[in-house]
């Protein structure tokens, strides 16, 4: 009897969460440009983006770092906005859209890579929150156990992702205003303590191993890391203009502010006679006080909740209909994310982690953009909701050409990063190579659609359930 009750309670909870999650299939958005801008502003005003800025100074000069942050954010943001617009036009999340170019089964590969990347992000953010909480507790009591606090922070994140993601999505834009206010306080403190000219004249330290090209690559890779969730967010927009303007302005503003703040805080510490400690939240908390620690903790909780939810969404949308349930998927992925948050050594490999993201996903997004905007003329039809057959079946469900371009592009990125440095970095050449190869294949294979297909949002098409029923009947 107890077992039945437990099973019944689990089933009721699972069904409740299934109804309140986006689940499988397209959704039609209702949000305007202002609301979309706030969502993107809030999403990237997070400690990881801020601390990424701390990596650059004094490896390069402060003004060069600021200029490259703006340039790299604009370049990477263009990819983010275009992929996000695919979500607005179709109603599908990012990884579901890979079915159009990689095939209904070939898309499993980028989905798996996406889950690995998002899992890594969730670990990093949990660790940063845990390290920050541990710093405060140690200051107050002398007790120190960063692994314990990282696990507790990630446990809270998983609970929020399962039960409170909708509430976090509503609260996050308002939290962004609090973060902006505290960022303004730090900027004012920095530039009233030291003159702007002192920041401009702070000498670079080449021995730290940074160059302008390396900074540009990391900034672009940061945008690429957010692009894996761009269609998830932008399919909530009521129009293309709302999605593109909101995401473009929100992402550009939040990233530039957060990264420049990171570069400024390190420059401030150096000018104040301190040591430049990169990617360490405790250094800036010690300099600017406990309120900053509270802001860091809250921002990580909000953003990491959406990251974990994005992982679950990617897996749930991997197969047609609702065969993969939200709650069991969330519990499994959540458990892995909690265990992984104990791996604090990952924080020392953050730059390599960003390079890996760029290597894996720049070719993916190059293929997606060429396929959707050039080859398919900005139209995916309802066959993308099927499990087998149709326009996106290619060869046994896999577009071998897309997979081959992905492998070549990822290999080129790693070679340009570690073996044969390029004067313009690795990210831009990787995108050009991948896009060019896929477009060349499409031309040779005569895959480019003639004319201009009539656009329709996929929520107006046949439902996934009906598509699946038809497929089973055809068997």
TrEMBL record:
Its main location: membrane. Signal peptide: none annotated. InterPro entries: CodB (IPR030191), Pur-cyt_permease (IPR001248), Pur-cyt_permease_Fcy2/21/22 (IPR026030). It comes from the Bacteria. The keyword Transmembrane helix applies. It is a multi-pass membrane protein. The keyword Transmembrane applies. Residues 452-466 have a biased composition (Polar residues). Residues 452-475 are annotated as: Disordered. Pfam families: Transp_cyt_pur. Keywords: Membrane, Transmembrane, Transmembrane helix, Transport. The chain crosses the membrane at residues 38-56, 62-83, 104-123, 143-163, 175-196, 208-229, 249-271, 283-312, 324-346, 352-374, 394-418, 424-444. It is found in: Membrane. Belongs to the purine-cytosine permease (2.A.39) family. This is Purine-cytosine permease family protein.
């Amino acid at each position: 009897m107890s077992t039945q009750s437990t099973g019944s309670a689990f089933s009721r909870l699972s069904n409740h969460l299934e109804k309140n999650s986006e689940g499988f299939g397209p959704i039609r958005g209702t949000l305007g440009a202002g609301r979309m801008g706030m969502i993107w502003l809030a999403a990237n005003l997070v400690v990881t983006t801020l601390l990424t800025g701390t990596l650059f100074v004094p490896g390069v000069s402060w003004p060069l770092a600021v200029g490259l942050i703006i340039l790299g954010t604009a370049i990477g943001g263009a990819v983010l906005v275009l992929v996000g617009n695919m979500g607005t036009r179709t109603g599908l999340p990012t990884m579901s859209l890979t079915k159009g170019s990689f095939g209904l089964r070939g898309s499993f590969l980028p989905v798996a890579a996406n889950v690995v990347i998002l899992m890594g992000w969730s670990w990093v953010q949990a660790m940063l929150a845990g390290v920050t909480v541990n710093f405060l507790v140690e200051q107050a009591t002398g007790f120190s156990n960063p692994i314990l606090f990282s696990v507790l922070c990630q446990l809270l994140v998983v609970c929020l992702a399962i039960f409170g993601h909708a509430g976090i999505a509503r609260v996050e834009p308002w939290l962004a205003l609090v973060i902006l206010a505290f960022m303004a306080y730090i900027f004012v403190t920095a530039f009233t303590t030291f003159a702007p000219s002192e920041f401009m004249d702070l000498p670079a330290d080449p021995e730290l191993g940074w160059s302008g090209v390396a900074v540009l690559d990391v900034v672009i890779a940061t945008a690429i890391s957010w692009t894996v969730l761009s269609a998830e967010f932008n399919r909530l927009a009521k129009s293309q203009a709302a999605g593109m303007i909101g995401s473009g302005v929100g992402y550009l503003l939040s990233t530039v502010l957060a990264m420049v703040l990171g570069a400024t805080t390190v420059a401030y510490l150096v000018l104040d006679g301190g040591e430049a400690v990169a990617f360490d939240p405790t250094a800036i908390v010690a300099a600017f006080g406990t309120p900053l620690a509270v802001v860091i903790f809250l921002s990580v909780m909000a953003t990491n909740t959406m990251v974990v939810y994005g992982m679950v969404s990617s897996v749930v949308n991997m197969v047609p209909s609702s065969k993969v349930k939200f709650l069991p998927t969330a519990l499994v992925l959540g458990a892995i994310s909690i265990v992984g948050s104990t791996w604090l050594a990952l924080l020392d490999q953050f730059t390599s982690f960003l390079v890996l993201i760029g290597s894996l996903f720049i070719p993916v997004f190059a293929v997606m953009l060429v396929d959707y905007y050039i080859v398919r003329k900005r139209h995916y039809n309802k066959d993308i909701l099927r499990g087998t057959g149709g326009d996106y079946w290619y060869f046994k469900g896999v577009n071998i050409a897309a997979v081959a371009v992905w492998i070549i592009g990822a290999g080129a990125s790693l070679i340009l990063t570690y073996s044969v440095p390029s004067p313009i970095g690795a990210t831009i050449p990787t995108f050009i190579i991948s896009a060019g190869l896929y477009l060349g294949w499409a031309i040779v294979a005569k895959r480019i659609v003639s004319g201009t297909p009539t656009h329709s949002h996929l929520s107006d098409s046949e439902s996934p359930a009906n598509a699946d029923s038809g497929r089973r009947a055809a068997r």
